[in-house]
Amino acid sequence: MSGPPDVDYRTTSARPAWSALPEGLRQSISVALGTEFVTVGPSVSSGFTGGFAAPAQLPDGRLVFIKAAPEGSHTHDAYQREAHIVPQLPPTIRVPRILTTTDTAQWFAVVSEGIAGRMPGMPWTQADFDLVTDNCLTSADALSPSPLSDLKPYVDDFGEHGPSQLPNDIRTGAKPLPEGLQSWLPKRLEEIQYLVDLTPEALAGTAAVHGDLRPDNLLIDKSNQCWTVDWNWLTLGAPWIDWVGLLPLAQHHGIDTLEAIKINPLTIDVPNDYIDSLIAALVAYVLEVVDRPPPPGCTPEIQRHRRLLGWCCLEWLALRRGW
After folding, report:
1. What is the pTM of this model?
2. Distance between alpha carbon 187 and the CA centroid of its chain, in Å?
3. Fewer beta carbons within 10 Å, N or C terminal of the chain?
């Protein structure tokens, strides 16, 4: 491969139609909400899973959004986690309010406010980048310190037993180097490992961190208000993590993120190596999973996303560190 894959985050999932859900589940959702649905739209095509997710209209004209997943699936746990987290978020965070949930013997469903909006980052424009940046600033302020008490550290997502040693294992020949990434990568594995080793110190903090901020977890409505969705990965860490995680793809689309770091209140006083350690950790994660089959319940598009993420993170580090 001579470059990264193109990923259209608007067309990455494979979800069932409303009519494919069990009749008992559909009735249970209506009962929990206290009304029938006038229409239920087609499932959204963003995301990487097969959980049901679609907009619906109520008799009073309101737009709602329905998610549902069977017991035992990744999305079942994710939807339950989000339903637990969202009601605890501060009111200054722009997140669709949860209206009701229903938990049957084999399914879990959650209904939230519907937001008529579009996904930013397709590709990133300066205007959308500025809107999302402002949203990240508002969220970081509201979530520092965390209003939730049951969060695990963000760095645990990269390894509960310490930082990944994969870059070093690849450098020494103990593990294979995945194909399709930059040809200069082997020469930089030692420095990448150094940055990854910094993560317990660099990424530690008392802020609640969304932890999975991508274009498909953001919406910009008709009033140019930015909303954040899919809160099931909330963890504890440095307040700049979510925003910095967006920068490699934005840089790939032509946004001057290196200059943005210098003026953003979230990062203006953060050591350069700390910022780079987050992106290096994402690189190590990609090196670990990019050649694996998609996780159960996920579409093959997640592998294209991971390869794009790895490529953009490496290019971003190269710019930052003069590689």
Report:
1. 0.94
2. 30
3. N
